C-alpha cells in the first residue's frame, strides 16, 4: 500500500498494516509512520515483501523496546531454525546453493557459535588496523574529489560515497591494485541482492567467490600485512577460522559494513545540504566532526532496521504478544527519533551530547565495522566540506530517488555541483 506522509497520521491504524516498508517512496520519509506507531502501536504487524514472498513482521519502534530486543539474544535469535516450528520452517523460501558458504557469519549465528567467530574475528579486525587506514582513506578521498572538481560536479553516490569505502576495504583485504576494477564490479553486484532477485547476480557471486577463495589460499601460503592474512592467521587456542568462515566474514564486511558507510556519507551529505546552518557550523569547526558523524548516523539512519531476529518463544513486548517463530524487526530509524530518549529528536544538532543512538546496533551483534565506518565518514565529509565550499544540489530534493529494500536506507543517486 502506498500512503502519503500526511496519511500516516490520518489513516485508520488498521490500514497501516499494508504499508510496504521496503518501497522506495516510503524510504524517502519513513519517520512520520514510525512516530504514529510509537504513540499508538509500539509493536505493530506489517506484511514484509522480499524474495518474492510475503511474511508477517512485527515492527518494534520505541527506543527502550528496541534496545531490549537487541540485547535479549536468548529470546530474539538470528537462526530461524532455533525459533520456528517444523511447519513454519517449511514455508521459508530456499536460498540458492551458491550463497550457502556465506551463511556462517556473525549476523546469522547465535550463542556459542557466534561467540567463537567473534573472538577470532576480533583478533584480526582491530581498532589499530582501522586507524592505520586513515591516511589511505584520505588519499582515496582526495583522488575521488580531484576527478569530481575537474568536472565541477558529480553523482555523490556513484562517484564518491560508493567508491571511497570500496577502495578502502579492497586495500584492507589486500586486493592487488590490478584487480580493483573486477573487485568493485563484483562487490556492487553482490550488495545489489537486497534490491534484485538473487538469481540475477549468481554468475557474479560465483566469480567473486572463486576469486576470494584464491586470495585466501594465497594468504595461507604467503601471508601479508592485510586483513585477509589476519583472518587466516587468527587463532584462539587450537581454533582457527575455516576458509568458508573467512569467506563469509569478507562478504559480511562488503555487505553490512560497506553499504552502511555509503549511506552514511551520501544521506549525511544530503542532510547537511538541507541544514545549511549545520553545514557551516561544521566547516567553521572541523573538531566537531566526531560528534557530527554520530548525529548524522542518528538522523539519517543508514540502516533503517536491525537485521532479522525471530522470537524463540511466545513473548510479550509493550503489551503485544509476538508468537514464536515470527520475524521481529527492531526499527532503528524509529528508536533514533524517540522523544523519550532524545531532546528535539527531529532536529539535526551536530553538537548533540549524550547521543546514544542505535544506528550501529547494540548487544552481541553490535556492528563490527562501526569504527571503520566512522573513520571513513569523518575523512570523507571533512574533505568534501573543505574542498567543495560551493557544494549544492543539482536537482530539487523532491526528485531524488531512494533505494528500495529491507534493512538499509540510502539514495540511488545524489547529483551535486561543486
UniProtKB/TrEMBL annotation:
Gene3D superfamilies xrefs: Cytochrome P450 (1.10.630.10)
Matching InterPro entries: Cyt_P450, Cyt_P450_B, Cyt_P450_CS, Cyt_P450_sf
The keyword Iron is assigned to this record: yes
A Pfam entry, by short name: p450
Keyword line: Heme, Iron, Metal-binding, Monooxygenase, Oxidoreductase, Plasmid
Family indicated by similarity: Belongs to the cytochrome P450 family.
Protein name from the UniProt record: Polyketide biosynthesis cytochrome P450 PksS
Gene: pksS
